[in-house]
Amino acid sequence: MNTATSNTVSNHKNDSSVSCQSEMEQNSDNSMNEKLEMSSKHEKHLPDEKWTPYLFFCISSIALASFQDGFQIGCINAPGPLIIEWIKKCHFELFGEVLSQYQADFIWSVAVSMFSVGGMFGSFSSGFLADRFGRKSTLLYNNVLALIAATCLSTAKLFNLYPMIVFGRFLVGLNCGITSGLVPMYLTELAPPNLRGKCGSFHQLNISVAIVLSQALGLPFIFGSQEGWPYIFACVAIPTFLQLATIPFCVESPKYLISKLNDREEARRALEKLRNHTKVDEELEHMVQETMVTAEPVHQPGYLALFKGENQWPMIVSILMMFSQQFSGISAVTFYSTLIFKRNGLSGNEPMYATVGFGCIKLIATFGCLGLIDHPRFGRKRLHIAGLSGMCISSILIVITLTLSNAGFHWASYLNVLFILSFVVTFAFGPGPIPWFFTSELFDSATRGRAAAVSATSNWVANWMVGLTFLPINNIIHQYAFLMFTFFTFTFAVFTWKFVPETKGKTPSAIRKELIFMRKRMCS
């Protein structure tokens, strides 16, 4: 009887303890929500800022790192067959064995894919590096990897060692992976709220510029020859040295200075230089409030904790936004555009010139996106949905015109080129730039580094999957492979419409609140 009474008393105590703990957690959550709401209201009253010469200098210097990413995507397109022939010759001289075409293609495929493998490792480590050493220092020393990679890639033929190509591609992938997680975050942290979209788009803009330049360098009359292709890889040292010369004059992220170093005075000086005036008290106070809100341990999660609790749904949405970019099919068109044009009836050097032309048009479209991304009538959500919808329609028309062209209707091949053009242009207006800085707008300063690393890693994984699977699938089902992208673009357009809020001019707390509300409304 005494035992039963004791157990009953113990259970009451446990229930009381759990109840008290639950009440305390509820009060804590309510208090946190109140702070987040106050922080959100505070940013709405921040004055709109204008571009300043120093802000433009910093944004341009930081985005130079993105040049490497785009260059490595585009530079392998034209000289690929030349490098494969050199690999066969090099292998015979090293080992006395004659490689078959299949074996040489496989070695080249491994070299190409090592870029994505390195990117996965680099992007995953970018959050830790950015939080541990700072945005500026990480970006500065990341250039060392780029220089080592450029040396390996450009001197491989000189030393007659094709494994240097494989190793160099891995190193440059590591460099670009760190860049992909770091640069969009750094750009948006320097930008005032009303210019976040434009500043964040500089990452994709530099990628587009680099793709065009690298493809142009691969033309036969420039470096597209057996003697010239090593110089293509050497050219990436130019923007690397340029960033090494300019990044020391850039400020560290004010949000990093406050949230990680607790250096309010240095953050003030950085803001004053960026805004070109001393009236930065409101913006500085908002950063301090955001840091105070996220200073509790529960809001400083590790990587696994990003998939639990209040961070779970925002993290999933960030990853799906990255998937919407890569599974749209843009990588397939970028990697295999020359091959696609050859199969579409273009001959000689025409496919290479067409590829460069498409790169130029994509670049122009990316410039156009800069004027719309912060526009009151557009914003991120509408542009992203419009871009995915345009790609969805274009992919259907690509399949139809390719089918007609294969059936003997030669006029359809010209229409096919037009629809591939619309596919690329609509990508540049939304799915191209927006996913890169979406994560930085969604997460606060305490979680932004790790969240950006996870979302960037998911982008590299998706990139690798598309690059690896598209050509084999295309060889089996031919033009109908583009119907995969029809499905993905339609699905992600609907997902964005239903579950993704507009982020333009809003605080992370306000965006997350709306994000969770939209999910609950759809699931109820």
From TrEMBL:
The protein depicted here goes by the name Protein CBG06417
Question: Does the record carry Transport as a key word?
Answer: yes
Q: Which family does it belong to?
A: Belongs to the major facilitator superfamily. Sugar transporter (TC 2.A.1.1) family.
Source species of the chain:
Caenorhabditis briggsae
What InterPro entries is this protein classified in? Answer: GLUT (IPR045263), MFS_dom (IPR020846), MFS_sugar_transport-like (IPR005828), MFS_trans_sf (IPR036259), Sugar/inositol_transpt (IPR003663), Sugar_transporter_CS (IPR005829)
Q: Where is this region: Disordered?
A: 1-39
User: What's a single GO CC term here?
Assistant: plasma membrane
Keyword terms, alphabetized: Cell membrane, Membrane, Transmembrane, Transmembrane helix, Transport
Question: Pfam families of this UniProt entry?
Answer: Sugar_tr
Q: Which domain of life is it from?
A: Eukaryota
- What is its subcellular localisation? Cell membrane
Q: Which residues form the Major facilitator superfamily (MFS) profile domain?
A: 58-504
Presence of keyword tRNA-binding: no
- Per the UniProt entry, what is one GO biological process? fructose import across plasma membrane
